[in-house]
Amino acid sequence: MAIAIVRQLNEAQILDLCALYQNTWWAQGRTARDVRRMVANSDIVIGLHDDARDRLVGFARVLTDFVYQAVLFDLIVAESRQGLGFGRFLMDTIVTLPELKTVETIHLHCRPDMLPFYEKWGFLPSTADTVILCRPRSD
Question: What CATH number is attached to the domain comprising 102?
Answer without folding.
Answer: 3.40.630.30
